[in-house]
Specification:
Blueprint (H helix, E strand, L loop, with lengths): L4 E5 L6 H12 L2 E4 H14 L7 H9 L3 E6 L2 E6 L2 E2 L7 H4 L2 H4 L3 H14 L5 E5 L2 H5 L5 E6 L2 H14 L6 H17 L12 E4 L5 H15 L1
Parallel strand pairs: 1-6, 1-7, 2-6, 7-8
Antiparallel strand pairs: 3-4, 4-5
Helix pairs in contact: 1-10, 2-3, 3-6, 8-9
Cytidine-5'-monophosphate binds next to helix 2, helix 5 and helix 9.
């Protein structure tokens, strides 16, 4: 059987990582969460106390960090220069600033090189914003997941509740919309459906339903 490269793009909190992880496991493919790479850089840049709008300063930090994505039972752990940052890259502080870091052309150029290296042998499910358009333009399957902002905020809200903390639904909605706007309007590699991507609106679908649809497309290509 062919080892496919699968690109899954879409706006914030559309369920990309959840379905990407499941699919990668089913096919014994490598799961690559490119958002985690931008988050890891953002975390280190905040820690270094630099101005996140300063492209050279941010790019300099990136050149000094080694980011590893390692599979484990829960999906994946993220290491930066050996430090486990899996949890800390999900804080609001990082989430609400990552789109600034991700705007810089020098940062994106370097991330693109690293992401292509990770995907070089095929058999990958990569999720992000620009995978189908820039990182893996030749991927055998490109999926663009979308859902209404209300639905995405609600999913995050429920997820947070399960983890034991209460969040303000309206604030979540606003933060998600704001991140989508920054990601869609940036100059380099904005969030955009690739010409040849298959769009799936997940608003009224279950996780299993989305996985099933994508796996039907995979089976057609194996
Ligand atoms: O996927 P996740 O929400 O973790 O991504 C965090 C942020 O990283 C996005 O909002 C975006 O600014 C940036 N990103 C990107 N290109 C990617 C993946 C993520 O610009 N391929």
């Amino acid at each position: 059987r062919n080892k496919l490269s699968i690109a899954i793009d879409g706006p914030a909190a559309a369920g990309k990582s959840t379905v990407a992880k499941i699919i990668a496991e089913h096919y014994a493919y490598i799961y690559i969460d490119t958002g985690a790479m931008y988050r890891a850089l953002t975390y280190k840049a905040i820690q270094a106390n630099i101005n996140l709008h300063d492209e050279d300063a941010v790019a300099d930090i990136l050149s000094n960090i080694h980011i590893e994505l390692k599979p484990n039972e829960e999906g994946q752990i993220v290491l930066v220069n050996g430090e486990d940052v899996t949890e800390v890259i999900r804080t609001n502080e990082v989430t609400n600033q990552v789109s600034i870091v991700a705007m810089h052309p020098k940062v994106r150029r370097e991330m693109l090189v690293r992401q292509r290296q990770l995907a070089a042998d095929g058999g990958v499910v990569m999720d992000g914003r620009d995978i189908g358009t820039h990182v893996l333009p030749n991927a055998e399957l490109k999926i663009f997941l979308k859902a209404s902002v209300e639905e995405r905020a609600l999913r995050r809200y429920e997820e947070n509740k399960l983890k034991g903390f209460d969040t303000d639904l309206d604030k979540l909605k606003q933060e998600i919309a704001n991140r989508d706007k920054l990601d869609s309007e940036r100059e380099i590699a904005p969030l955009k459906k690739a010409e040849d991507a298959i769009e799936i609106d997940t608003t009224s679908l279950t996780i299993e339903g989305v996985v099933r649809k994508i796996e039907d497309y995979i089976e057609e290509r194996l």
